[in-house]
Amino acid sequence: MALTGIQILKMLPKKNCGECAIPTCLAFAMKVAAGQSEIGECPYVSDEVKEQIGEASAPPIRTVKFGAGDSAFTTGGETCLFRHEKRFENPTGIAVLVTTEMSDADVDGRIERFKSLRYERVGVLLKADLIAVKDSKNDGASFTALTNKVLAGAEDASIILISDNADNMKAAAAACGERKPLLYAATVDNGDAMAALAKELACPMAVKGKNIDETIGLTEKFIAAGLKDMMIDTGARTLRAALEDSVVARRSAIKSKFKPLGFSSITFPCEITDDPLMEAMVASVLIAKYAGIVVLSDLQGDILFPLLLERLNIFTDPQRPMVVQEDVYSISGPDENAPVLITCNFSLTYFIVSGEIEGSKVPSWLLIKDTEGLSVLTAWAAGKFGADMIAQFMKKSGIEDKVKHRELIIPGYLASMKGELEEELPQWTITIGPREAGHLPAFLKEWKPAA
Predict the structure, then answer these.
(1) Digit-coded pLDDT (tens) for 341-387
(2) Which domains does the chain have, with CATH numbers?
(3) Phi, psi angles (nearest 5°) of residue 418
(4) Does residue 134 contact residue 99 with C-beta atoms inside 8 Å?
(5) Cα separation of 218 and 214, whole Å?
């Protein structure tokens, strides 16, 4: 059961030192209780208290991380059933399957598509995350060779190793080195060997039962044996069963704090159907309903892109606007005579405006002011896009060193601010731009610096 802020405060040294970047221990305890800070940020708390508070405040769906560096994959950490209640934490991982029975051309094609099918949208790179390597021939040498090929060909892929043979799994996992893989899967037949291997290699392990009840029995056994980093596969291989099991597991963990089901799930749309379009539909349902990983038979742009967009929408925090960083952005290689425009840092505004500027073929400087993700008029009304704030940003941005002229183009909806800006920036000419971004290309093509 989660601890309250007061309960956590009683365990703290109460130094009020501020070394955790929070002024008082009470404020720090409240943030820990709310999940906004980690207990380890206190430099004076004991290891025993760290473990006690960490265990009590852990999310009902355990966080599991594997891989290495920036490409490490994280799943779990979920605390709610519905996004509007708080937010979903870690996006569903999308994996592509390669097997030892595939030809070199088939494997190479999947690796190449994993690397090439990447899209940028609202400042976020959308791509598949994992490659699942399957020991379909139960041959250790070919399994390890395929694993090495994937490691070399896809350097930013997290790896799932699939084998029923613990010896084959050990050799392939050793080849992964620091890119620790997910070991799939411990079953009734090989559970002890797989659990011992997971402990030895310090790798997370997937648990697979024939049904949800058998899966619960296995996770209870492994939890008692000291294993914590696990994922679950309930063995469901129809859409209805997979959906039902996913909902039951999530509700049991969140609502009833049922620890044997408090793990993220790994699902296999590729084993539910042979039809690529049906596989995409199954994956879309499971992404929407709590799957931690979906494994696809292949990656195709017309199928992958909609899944990536669905995932982006579901795992975008509804309480936090999407923003881009406050900065000076160069578009199409501007020089010292290029126009200078300014707008807010709401992602949609930035990408619409920058897209129109790029489409105009007029090299330009675009200044993005931090408005905490609010749109132009909302930010102005909230006092976050006022003349004084714009002036301060202009002075510290370095734009005066980039251009010879002194003319700033502001959004048409801020026309009433023109006089205030001229007072704050007396050396600059303030030009009112169009109200709609779609009118920017024509405006920029006719623009000339003020004399």
Answers:
(1) 999 999 889 989 999 999 999 999 999 999 988 889 999 999 999 99
(2) 5-56 (1.10.15.40), 64-314 (3.20.20.20), 327-446 (3.40.50.11600)
(3) -55, -50
(4) yes
(5) 6
